[in-house]
Design goal:
mainly beta; four-stranded antiparallel beta sheet
Amino acid sequence: MPAAANTTISTTGDSQIKTGPGFLYWVTASSTHATLARAYILIDGTADFNTRVWLWSAGDAANNGSNPIHVEFDPPIKFEAGLFLDINSGSGMITVGWS
């Protein structure tokens, strides 16, 4: 398998991380940039209604939000259509290792 590329997403909404097939190796997510309670959802596809591959309910940093997390996937999670980030509300920061 090829080495993972790192993509840092600091966003106030949904974002396309990659189009086409690939592998998800790891995720680092932080609630310290949160403006509202929300969840990070990584999706196999190009929109938020496709197949969910990972979810983290981060909470609201101002109201007992979660500490930053780092998750490694062994084996990596395969995706076919693309890798799409859905943040259900507010803003946040996430770094993703993919190939």
